[in-house]
Design goal:
A hairpin with a 2-residue loop joins strand 18 and strand 19 (309-320). With 321 residues, this protein is mainly β. Helices cover 5% and strands 40% of the residues. The chain is globular. Strands 2, 3, 5, 6, 7, 8, 10 and 11 form an 8-stranded antiparallel β-sheet that branches. Strands 16-15-18-19 form a 4-stranded antiparallel β-sheet, with no helix packed on it. The chain is built from 3 helices and 19 strands.
């Protein structure tokens, strides 16, 4: 996963003296091994508005979703980390990891956060960490934690469709957007603007999550699981397909897919989105000719284009032997 804007490249503007200073609540590299799926919704009406006045959120969303690219990444074990020093005041564990559907609604009512942890930082500040993996919570009520202390691991518990940690900041019970703690609609993505983050976390409004090659259009379940990419392929493979898994597509966005091989560009297409989609994938390629595939290295590229600007790109290679 390669986004146009990455995190942690600059120092954020200082917060107010009484505010907490936050580190990322997940052990990953934004734009590489994880990404932000949704920001806090700052629109009090039925509309949506993230801190940059974009739409990378949904109505009444109260936190920041730091997501993993696949279930396979979750299975490797990714730590959820305390964003600031404090004391654990609540925990929950024991809820199963599964993609939520309507059949589970009654089971999770009032427990939509799934397995989670709440840390109190003093002066009315608290942070909450949701959707942790079942059996992974390693702190208990009363535990003192420092910045970066592991609390558990990223999971799929509660009301969620993808592996992530839903991170919530509250001050005296009220939701605070860590990207815009003053609650002002500046619509700014300037990394030097005042936030609660110790290191600047730049804004991304969508892009590729992962990209891969396969011998046919893969099942979406395999794409989300992280098992759709084929390694080295034989010269008699029935087809050569490039696929891209994306987040936060908007109406009119364009998806570019390219395959470049030893004989030059093999496949090059651009398709448009007809509806907004939080998560989606697209695929395309060529069938094998009678002569089979030329041996060598093949490069695949997936891009998300918005209003004529590339807002995210990712690439991958495979070898035909």
């Amino acid at each position: 996963m390669k986004a146009v804007l990455l995190a942690g490249l600059t120092i954020a503007a200082p917060v107010a003296a009484m505010d907490p200073i936050l580190n990322l609540p997940i052990d990953c590299t934004l734009g590489d091994s994880c990404y932000i799926q949704f920001f806090v919704d700052n629109d009090p009406t039925a509309g949506v508005r993230d801190f940059a006045c974009g739409t990378t959120t949904y109505d009444t969303h109260k936190g920041v979703d730091f997501a993993l690219p696949s279930l396979a990444e979750m299975d490797t074990g990714v730590d959820v980390l305390a964003a600031a020093p404090g004391r654990v005041v609540a925990t929950r564990d024991g809820m199963p990891d599964r993609i939520h559907s309507a059949e589970f609604e009654d089971e999770i009512t009032g427990r939509e956060c799934g397995n989670g942890v709440v840390v109190d930082h003093g002066r009315g500040w608290q942070t909450q960490y949701c959707h942790l993996e079942q059996g992974s919570v390693i702190v208990e009520k009363g535990t003192r934690v420092g910045t970066g202390t592991p609390l558990g691991m990223v999971g799929l518990s509660g009301k969620t469709q993808f592996p992530h940690v839903h991170f919530v900041v509250r001050h005296r019970g009220e939701i605070v957007d860590p990207f815009s703690p003053d609650g002002r609609d500046t619509c700014s993505t300037d990394a030097s603007a005042r936030t609660l983050w110790e290191s600047a976390v730049d804004y991304t409004s969508g892009g590729p999550i992962s990209v891969g090659f396969s011998t046919g259009v893969p099942d979406y379940a395999d794409v989300k699981a992280g098992t759709a990419h084929s390694g080295a392929l034989p010269t008699d493979a029935p087809a050569l397909v490039i696929w891209g898994f994306f987040h936060n597509g908007q109406v009119g966005d364009q998806i570019a897919l390219v395959i470049d091989g030893p004989d030059g560009v093999l496949f090059d297409t651009i398709v448009s989105l007809e509806k907004a989609q939080p998560l989606f994938f697209r695929a395309g390629g060529k069938r094998r000719t009678n002569d089979g595939w030329t041996k060598g290295v093949y490069h695949g590229i997936a891009q998300l284009i918005r209003n004529g600007e590339i807002i995210g790109t990712d690439g991958i290679t495979t070898e035909i032997q």
